[in-house]
Amino acid sequence: MITTPRLHLRPLREDDATQQYLGWFRGPASERIYSSDLMKETDDLRRYIAERQGRDDVLFLGIFERASGVHLGNLKYEPIRERQSVATMGILIGEPSARGKGIAGEAIQAANAWLREHRGIRRIVLGVATDNIAAIRAYEKIGFVSQPCEEIPPSASTQSMVLIL
Hints:
With 165 residues, the protein is an alpha+beta fold. The protein has four helices and eight strands. It has an eight-stranded mixed sheet, covered by helices on one side.
């Protein structure tokens, strides 16, 4: 669906719910994943994927390494509100070996360009833990700015960030 020099992004399918993917919800890094306590078995992942398939207000993409086909993470826009030209984004780079290599930025920029061209989206919003400095810097590097927005409820532990496309 979307290709970059290093990545292939495509809608997730139920058969992408592997033990490797499930493993991303275990260990110390899983503390930052809001849905990690809900993902106990691959059937939970399959259900989660199935619930988002075919919905106009969701774009749920797997991030795959182009050369090897290895599933590196996921990028999700939910909800997508075309009338307001805004989408709420979340990303997970699940494979530890893929972190810190610019994979997230490359995937986000490619998917954002696709959303702008094909869905008319002009604004991307996200919530990030205030203590997740690495993520905040990565988002800032690709143009996000810390800014209150109605889509992300204010909280002491989360800050909202906005990108105008």
